[in-house]
Every structure is written in C-alpha cells, then in structure tokens.
C-alpha cells in the first residue's frame, strides 16, 4: 500500500468522503468534531492536496464553492484498508 493511507487524517478524510461529496469547511468541521480538537487549516489542506495529487480525491466547483469527492481509486484503496482492518479485528 502506498503512503496515501498511512496518514490517519488522510484515511479519515476518505472515510468522510465515501458517503457524499463535501465542501472543505464542512469536511474540516466533521474532522474537528471527530477528533474533538481544532485542526490546523494548513495541515488540513495539505492532506487534501496530497490526496488530490495522488488521484484519490477530486475537486469540482459548484457555484462559488469547491466540493471534494472520493474517486474510484480512492474508494478502492479505502476498501482495501477496511478489509485489512476487518480481517485483523476478526482475528483478535
């Protein structure tokens, strides 16, 4: 597995985007609520940019907002990771 999902923040962004496309601010807010702490905007956008450069997340413009979506490649990689988690939890 490449480094794209070795970051917990990147994994969690992919998990949130697996449901529905989201604007960056809504995505950042959901992560902050999950972590129960403020997320540095620079590190958040670096994570999004890394996912986009890797082809796992794409951006489209809706009106004046950018909306982020998990790509098929991102969905496949997330599925592989979830299978790995499930296999290891079931073995425990």
Task: Count structural domains.
Answer: 1
CATH homologous superfamily classification: Winged helix-like DNA-binding domain superfamily/Winged helix DNA-binding domain
Percent of residues in helices: 55-70%
Mean pLDDT: 91
Given this structure, which CATH class is correct? Mainly Alpha
Query: Looking across the biggest beta sheet, what order are the strands in?
Result: 1-3-2
User: What class do helices, strands and sheet pairing give?
Assistant: alpha+beta
Main beta sheet: 3 strands, antiparallel
| CATH topology-level name | Arc Repressor Mutant, subunit A
Tell me the overall shape: globular
How far is the first residue's CA from the last residue's CA? Answer: 22 Å
| Strand segment tally | 3
Radius of gyration: 13 Å
Describe the structure.
With 92 residues, the protein is α+β, with helices and mostly antiparallel strands. It has one domain: Orthogonal Bundle (Arc Repressor Mutant, subunit A). The protein has four helices and three strands; from the N terminus they run αβααββα. It has helices spanning 8-17, 24-35, 41-53, 72-91; strands at 22-23, 57-62, 65-70. Strands 1-3-2 form a three-stranded antiparallel β-sheet. The chain starts with 7 loop residues before the first helix and ends with a helix. The mean pLDDT is 91.
Topology diagram in text:
Layout: H1 8-17, E1 22-23, H2 24-35, H3 41-53, E2 57-62, E3 65-70, H4 72-91
Antiparallel strand pairs: 1-3, 2-3
Keywords:
single chain, 92 residues, alpha+beta, Arc Repressor Mutant, subunit A, 3-stranded antiparallel β-sheet, 4 helices, 3 strands, 60% helix, globular
């Amino acid at each position: 597995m490449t480094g794209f999902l070795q970051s917990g923040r990147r994994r969690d962004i992919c998990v949130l985007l697996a449901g529905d496309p989201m604007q960056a601010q809504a995505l950042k807010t959901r992560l902050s609520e999950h972590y129960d702490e403020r997320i540095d905007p620079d590190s958040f956008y670096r994570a999004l940019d890394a996912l986009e450069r890797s082809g796992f997340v794409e951006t489209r413009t809706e009106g004046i907002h950018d909306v982020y979506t998990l790509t098929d490649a991102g969905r496949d990689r997330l599925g592989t990771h979830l299978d790995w988690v499930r296999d290891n939890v079931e073995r425990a």
